[in-house]
Amino acid sequence: MADSALPLAGLRVLDISSFIAAPAAAVVLGDWGADVIKIEGPDGDPNRTIMVDSPSYPKGPVNYPWQMDARNKRSLVLDLKQPEARAALDRLLAISDILICNFPPPVRDKLKLAYDDVKKVNPRLIYASLTGYGESGPDRDRPGFDATAYFARSGLFDAQRYEGGPPGTAVPAQGDRATAMGLVSGILMALIHRMKTGEGSWVGTSLLGNGLWSCGVIAQAALVGAFLPPRPPRDRPRSALGNLYRTSDDRWLQLTIVREDKLWGPLCRALERPELVEDQRFAALDERRKRSAELAAILSEAFARRDYEHWRKTLAAHHVTFGVISRPQDIPDDAQAVHSGAIVETKIPGMPRTVADPIRVSFATQRVAHPAPALGQHSDEVLGEAGLSGDDIARLRASGAVR
Fold first, then answer.
1. Phi and psi for 312 in degrees, rounded to 5?
2. What does the alpha-carbon distance between residue 255 and residue 260 come to, in Å, rounded to a whole number?
3. How many domains are there within the chain?
4. What is the pLDDT of residues 22-60, one digit of tens each?
C-alpha cells in the first residue's frame, strides 16, 4: 500500500519530546502515514544512547531502541533557548497538525510552548501533552518515568509483590508503551473534533493516569476499601487453578481457569488424573480453595512429568486455558506473533524485523519501518518546507540556533 493511502497521510506531526512514551505515540502516527518531524536539541534525544547508557537494556550491534522509537521520522535540530530557533518553530507550527510535547509545565512556560502559546500561532493545531503525574496538583512539575509514575505511584509494583518479598519490577519502557497508546487515542479524538468543528484542541495523558488504569481492578478495590494481602508463593496459591507450573524441560505454564465448574474435569483428564474429579477433597470449588496448597503440589508433580510441547497439545485438546511463559529469546521464532502482524519486516539495515504497533484495521496496513534519522539529518529540508530560504537557514546555522 502506498503511504498516500494510509489513514493519517497528509498530517504533519511535530514530535518535540524525549525518551519513550511520547515519542512512541509519534511512532504510531507515523506507522499509519503521518509525516513525523522529530525536533531535538543540539545534544539530541537521550533515547539515542539509552542502550549504552542504561544497564537494564540488552546490548547489541544495532541501536535498536532508537530505530524502534524514531523509525520513519525526520530529524530537525533546534536550540529552542534561542529566539531565532523559537521563531523558526513558529513557522513550522503554522503549517502542522499535531504537536507532541512532554516537557514539564515549567519548561513549557519558559520556552513559550504551553498550549495557550502555540494555539495563537495555529488555532487548528492539536496539542498533545504527556506528563508524569498530570497537568495539575502538587506533583505536576515532577519529572516522571514509567518505573516511578506508571508502576510505583499507581500501586502496580506493590500489587505484584509476593508475601515476604520486595515490590515487583518492570522491564524497560513497559509503562511508556502502554501510555503512548493512551496519547494516540486522545490525538485521534481531537482529530475527529477538528473534523466536526474546525477547531484545534489540547489533549493529554500521564504515566500515573495510565498506571492507575492498568492497575484498575486493584485501584478500584482500594477506592471502596477492599484490599488483598500480598500474593502468596506458588506452593500455596490462592487458587491452584490460577498458578504457575514447571514442565520437565524447565519451561513454565500459567494455568488460568476461571470457569472451574466447566474445566475442572477436562483438566484432570488432561493431566491423566481422572480420579481427582471424584476426590472429595477437591470436588467443590470451596474445597479446592481451602486445599489449594495440597492441590498445587499434586498439579506440580503432574506437570513436571512431561515437557512443554506435550502440555501445549494436550491442554489445548481439552480446551483448558493456559499460557506458556515465553522467554525473550523465544520471540523471534513465535509464528503466531508473525502471522498476527505483531512482528513485521523492515527496511532498516541490520534490523530486518521489528515490533509493530498493536493497532489493526481492515482498510490499511502499517507503513514499513525505514531507518531512524541521524541527528539533524533533515533540518534544511524541513525548514525549507516551512518557507525559510537557504540564506535564512545558513544564518540560523551560523548562530547555533539550527544544526
1. -60, -45
2. 12
3. 2
4. 999 999 999 999 999 999 999 999 999 999 999 999 999
What is the per-residue pLDDT across 53-101, written as a single tens digit (0 to 9) for each? 999 999 999 999 999 999 999 999 999 999 999 999 999 999 999 999 9
Strand partners, 386: none
Domain region containing 141: 3-216+340-399
Alpha-carbon distance of 80 to 83, in angstroms, equals 7
Report the sign of the C-alpha dihedral through residues 288, 289, 295, 296, in that order.
positive
- Residue showing cell 494510509: 6
> Which H, E and C letters describe the chain, residue by residue?
CCHHHCCCCCCEEEEECCCCHHHHHHHHHHHCCCEEEEEECCCCCHHHHHHHHCCCCCCCCCCHHHHHHCCCEEEEEECCCCHHHHHHHHHHHHCCCEEEECCCHHHHHHCCCCHHHHHHHCCCCEEEEEECCCCCCCCCCCCCCHHHHHHHHCCHHHHCCECCCCCCCCCCCHHHHHHHHHHHHHHHHHHHHHHHHCCCEEEEEEHHHHHHHHCHHHHHHHHCCCCCCCECCCCCCCCCCEEEEECCCCCEEEEECCCHHHHHHHHHHHCCCHHHHHCCCCCCHHHHHHCHHHHHHHHHHHHCCCCHHHHHHHHHHCCCCEEECCCHHHHHHCHHHHHCCCEEEEEECCEEEEECCCCCCCCCCCCCECCCCCCCCCHHHHHHHCCCCHHHHHHHHHHCCEC
Q: What are phi and psi of 169, to 5 degrees?
A: -130, 175
Domain endpoint, select from 329, 363, 391: 329
Kindly state whether residue 96 falls inside one of the protein's structural domains.
yes
Give how far the C-alpha of residue 225 lies from the chain's centroid of Cα atoms, to the nearest Å.
Answer: 30
| Statement to judge: residues 314 and 389 lie in one domain | no
Pairing between strand 322-324 and 252-256? Answer: antiparallel
In terms of pTM, does the model score above 0.85? yes
User: Residue 282 belongs to a domain with what CATH number?
Assistant: 3.30.1540.10
| Paired residues of 30 in beta bridges | none
Residue 217 pairs in a beta bridge with none
Tell whether 256 and 346 lie within a shared domain: no
C-alpha cell at 135: 497537568
Based on the fold, state whether residues 116 and 261 are members of the same structural domain. Answer: no
